[in-house]
Amino acid sequence: KQWYQRRVHGLKTQETSSSAKYPRKLPNLALQRKRRRRFCSYVSAPRGIGEVEQTDVQVRLQEIWRDRKEEVNIGIGRVEQHYEHILNETSTEISELEGSINHKYEAIAKLQEELLVLSMRKDRVSADMDKVTEAHQLKLEALKAEISELETKSSSYSVVRGKKVEESSLPEDERSEVESELECPVCMEVSRPPIYQCPEGHIVCSACKPLLKACCLCEKKYTDPPIRCRFAEKLAAKYFKDEEDK
């Protein structure tokens, strides 16, 4: 009995001194189980313990289980606090991700709608372009046909004549002077009637006049109808022999 009291008193003293020196920590579970088994063996051992000692042992057991319960509750509180912290952070992150995902879905839906509108617009523009292309081809073919017809008419009414070797009745020196006066500035040939002139008096032959809108020397536009140079036509009549006199 005395040994048991000294043992209990020694455990209390050791526990009090150790708790004063060091802060309370979560004890080692294996060590706690070992101590409980040892203490329970003391209690269950038939040593003839009195009622007071049994009450003291019961009090000690209650204190041990109380301390253990407090430690477990503290551990549970820490675990719950850590879990709440992780849960809050995870919930916040999940909410942010869900918001971002919803925003992306809305953007995708908007882009799909815009893509559909653009596709429909593309189809309309393609159809309009096909119509414009078809109309352009028809108009181009009509213009080409008109150009061909105009070329045919122009060739049928062409005033271009082949060169004829004709002898003039004028003297040689006067002949050279007349040729220089009647020379067309475009084809550099001697002009035949009808001969036209610009407002400044520059002549042009009847073969080159349909090709010009303005004078090639002074760049003055020809009048409509064009002016005929009567003096040059009379001079050309003297230069060329009439076909009836051949």
Protein architecture, described:
- There is one protein chain.
- The chain has 246 residues and is mostly helical.
- The chain is built from 5 helices and 3 strands.
- It has helices spanning 2-21, 29-44, 51-156, 172-182, 230-239; strands at residues 196-197, 203-204, 227-228.
- A 3-stranded antiparallel sheet has the order 2-1-3.
- A hairpin with a 5-residue loop joins strand 1 (196-197) and strand 2.
- Residues 16-23, 162-167 and 242-246 have low confidence and may be disordered.
List descriptors:
mainly alpha; 246 residues; disordered C terminus; 2% strand
Total E-strand runs = 3
Biggest β-sheet: count, sense, barrel? 3 strands, antiparallel
User: Residue ranges: pLDDT <50 for 5 or more in a row?
Assistant: 16-23, 162-167, 242-246
Number of helices: 5
The Rg value, from CA coordinates, equals: 63 Å
Average pLDDT confidence is 79
**What global shape is seen?**
rod-shaped
What is the N-to-C order of secondary-structure elements (H for helix, E for strand)?
HHHHEEEH
Beta-strand content:
under 5%
What distance lies between the first and last C-alpha atoms, to the nearest angstrom?
176 Å
Structural class, by secondary structure, is: mainly alpha
Blueprint (SSEs and pairs):
Layout: H1 2-21, H2 29-44, H3 51-156, H4 172-182, E1 196-197, E2 203-204, E3 227-228, H5 230-239
Antiparallel strand pairs: 1-2, 1-3
